């Protein structure tokens, strides 16, 4: 990506000043919501609403035309209809505005007339060198700059994961699921029709963005998908990228992607070929995408693929073993010294069977004992990361402090899977996740997290 | 199942009196928690703690031996160790107690000695005709009778779904996920080692249980799994059964189950063969199991497989279409009359494209318009059930009242997928679900729900 485009994209996500063209006083209109989005989000730069007749809006002076806006403008937020949007982009070009967010639909997604209109929009953006988001997009936000430009006024917890979504609705679902999971977001963009800025452009920008540690992508279509997966794979060598591709049962899409030339085989087979060919992590649901991004953003990476599991009820580790078996992840046998340490840790009544996964049975409810067992497991040289499963119990507390201490002591990743409602472990989640231990409440999401960490952390050791 | 066994199982879940053998005053012990579980859950029958030396426990008179308990006993909750459990069951037999819950582990799961001990336990239970839960189990509960006998003291919302789990930990995960989803439970059992009561026994009991509308099952192993799936399939003809089988990547398990005689092929292929052969619904995660049971318990069943989708952002319907494509579910084209009604409903600015799935774009944020569009879709004779997708917005309210009215008016199932955090739609969930509209916040879980409803409702029409 050339330096000029990168600079335009940087300004797009970090504007010093914004004009909202088509701002209105009618709360049901997009122009109202976009202006409210910028203000409600706490943007600290200059905001210039533009409307031909109104004089003030949401406490701000309104300018009758774009030309009359007094200061320099980094981003034009364009809330007018598809026809007026084209004129606005021409104006932006003449005025030297280098970035625009165009939310109106009514372009190529509606047929031939729309396509022709979109082609005019694109050629204007190209001629003037405007980085154009959309059209037909929900917009974008950057919590790091308190800049929210969507028609959903928002203010969200900050984090280090950025999302690029080909669907606004799935993008919003990801955002809400992240909130439900206690995961902060850095940047978020609904790419819309991708007329001038392609998904690969956002990826290239986020790849070099210091505020983004992990990139999560939702894809709908597969047009240019192979290029996209290749681009993601290049980035994934230095920064984790996780892709959720919808259209799971359209095996033909995957034939095109993998160049296998035959439509026989399942979606999962093609997905696995893609993962092997390109090394980029692919997942199968909103829940897995958020689970994977959460682990990659909160935890350190393991040095290898040796998974340890501590639990006090056997079943939940089975879903983890499912993942382990599929990925070739090993659950290493424990060394004799580890088993001795575990026996010491458990005092009077150690369980009869001491192996990995380690079922501490009833003894393990005592947080101190649980913590010592976790320490013993983490001391084992074969174990690179550990999942600590603990069941909510009225008369016992969660071993969160012990897990944090164990993680710090060992320097190895620790994930918690609390068998609990979210409500009953909300404070624990805050405590754990702010200190580097991601928390899950389902076996499949914990498994997706393990899978993601080993994918990006333990590949070399695991392959050898 | 013979009448005597059925009667014993009925008493097991609906005891008039309970003895807790091994009740103690030490809060860290299972015997304490089991007694507390019975009392904390609000059990209204007689409770007799048994301990050789203590005189009162948690406000109750304690009896030194089982023999000295004054009244008749329906269920013995046995909290002593694996050896004393065997003696206790012998005593129960001599005293005519016909049901017992044995939580202690230390049997076949620990090796040959344990296996021999378990054989003694089983032969005693057989000789005396005792319905024995476990051993090595978390226990069971029945919210309908306020009877909770697990070592996790609980008190849960009542509902009409019952769960049978081969794993206590996954059983607890299901229970907590159900709570997170606002889904009440009727009965729940962790089957433990299944020495005398097999999963098929619980199924046979729940099949004829008037308080259970839907049965959810978690399976670990596949020993006897084919029989089990066949039993479930027989029940599924009259009452929905949903199975989540772990060990997903152990394709060999499925070869045994499906009798295909070859290990080539994916887990999904085998699962689909099972579904086709037996007609029982199989799912792939805790989240899908709860999503499916929720829909089947809260909603009516559709008359056919014609799925309608209303949304105001295109993306989320793609995951539904994934399911549709896989299952051969149709998204029928809308009739001209339906399209006219939708145009009328949307007033000034109908979207350019009117088809199923119907994207109402911005206009659809107004709940009244959204509701009229939903009515128009439901009036279409090709549509048997409808998913209403709506995105949380600071300035608009959810169309919950409209969805309830539309469902009542049409008599067709309506499912809501709100693109929202759970926190932001908690009250809506209560409102919707108590009146027959299940609510989801993820596309995959909404898809699992649609899939479940069409599996059990619309099969005939869909096949034809």
Task: Spell out the blueprint of helices and strands.
Two copies of one chain form a homodimer.
Chain A: H1 3-13, E1 17-21, H2 30-40, E2 46-50, E3 56-57, E4 60-61, E5 75-78, H3 82-95, E6 99-102, H4 112-128, E7 131-133, E8 139-142, E9 147-150, E10 158-165, H5 168-180, E11 185-190, H6 199-207, E12 214-219, H7 225-236, E13 241-245, H8 251-258, H9 267-278, E14 281-283, H10 286-298, E15 307-311, H11 317-327, H12 336-346, E16 358-359, H13 367-379, E17 385-391, H14 400-410, E18 414-419, H15 426-434, E19 439-440, H16 443-457, H17 459-463
Parallel strand pairs in A: 1-2, 1-5, 5-6, 6-7, 10-11, 10-12, 12-13, 13-14, 15-16, 15-17, 17-18, 18-19
Antiparallel strand pairs in A: 3-4, 8-9, 8-11
Helix pairs in contact in A: 3-4, 5-10, 6-7, 8-9, 10-16, 11-16, 12-13, 13-14
H/I helix tally of chain A: 17
Regarding CATH, which class of the largest domain in chain A?
Alpha Beta
Which spans of chain A of ≥5 residues are poorly predicted at pLDDT below 50? 258-264, 460-464
The interface involving the most residues is between:
A-B, 76 and 76 residues
Shape of chain A: elongated
What is the CATH superfamily classification of the largest domain in chain A? Succinyl-CoA synthetase domains
Write out the strand line-up for the largest beta sheet of chain A, numbering strands in chain order. Answer: 9-8-11-10-12-13-14
Radius of gyration of chain A over all CA atoms, rounded: 25 Å
The overall pLDDT average of chain A reads 90
């Amino acid at each position: 990506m050339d330096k000029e485009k990168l600079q335009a994209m940087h300004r797009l996500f970090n504007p010093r000043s914004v004009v909202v063209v088509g701002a209105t006083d009618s709360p049901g209109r997009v122009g109202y919501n976009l202006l409210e989005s910028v203000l409600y989000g706490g943007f600290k730069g200059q905001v210039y609403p533009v409307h031909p007749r109104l004089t003030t809006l949401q406490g701000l002076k309104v300018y009758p035309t774009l030309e009359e806006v007094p200061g320099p403008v980094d981003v034009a937020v364009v809330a007018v209809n598809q026809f007026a949007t084209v004129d606005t982009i021409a104006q932006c070009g003449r005025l030297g505005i280098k970035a625009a967010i165009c939310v109106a639909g009514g372009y190529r997604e509606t047929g031939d007339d729309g396509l022709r209109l979109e082609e005019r929009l694109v050629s204007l953006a190209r001629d003037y060198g405007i980085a154009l988001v959309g059209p037909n997009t929900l917009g974008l936000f950057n919590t790091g700059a308190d800049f929210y430009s969507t028609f959903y006024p928002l203010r969200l917890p900050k984090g280090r994961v950025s999302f690029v979504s080909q669907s606004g609705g799935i993008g919003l679902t990801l955002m809400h699921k992240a909130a439900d999971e206690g995961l902060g977001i850095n940047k978020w963009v609904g790419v819309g029709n991708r007329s001038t800025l392609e998904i690969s452009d956002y990826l290239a920008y986020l790849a070099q963005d210091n505020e983004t540690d992990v990139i999560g992508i939702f894809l709908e279509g597969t047009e240019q998908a192979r290029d996209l997966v290749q681009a993601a794979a290049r980035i994934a060598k230095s920064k984790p990228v996780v892709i959720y591709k919808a259209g799971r049962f359209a095996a033909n899409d995957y034939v095109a992607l993998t160049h296998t030339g035959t439509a026989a085989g399942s979606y999962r087979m093609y997905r696995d070929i893609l993962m092997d060919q390109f090394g980029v992590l692919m997942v199968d649901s909103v829940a897995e995408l958020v689970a994977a991004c959460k682990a990659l953003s909160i935890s350190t990476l393991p040095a290898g693929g040796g998974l340890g599991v501590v639990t006090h009820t056997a079943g939940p580790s089975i879903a983890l073993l499912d993942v382990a078996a599929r990925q070739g992840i090993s659950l290493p046998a424990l060394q004799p010294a580890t088993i001795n340490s575990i026996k010491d840790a458990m005092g009077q009544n150690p369980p009869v069977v001491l192996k990995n996964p380690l079922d501490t049975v009833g003894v393990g409810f005592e947080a101190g004992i649980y913590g010592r067992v976790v320490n013993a497991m983490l001391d084992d040289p074969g174990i690179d990361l550990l999942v600590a499963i603990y069941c909510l119990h009225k008369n016992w507390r969660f071993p969160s402090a012990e897990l944090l201490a164990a993680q710090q002591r060992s320097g190895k990743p620790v994930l918690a899977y609390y068998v609990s409602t979210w409500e009953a472990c909300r404070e624990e989640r805050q405590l754990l996740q702010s200190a580097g231990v991601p928390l899950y409440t389902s076996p499949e999401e914990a498994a997706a997290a393990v899978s993601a960490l080993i994918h990006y952390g333990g590949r070399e050791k695991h392959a050898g």
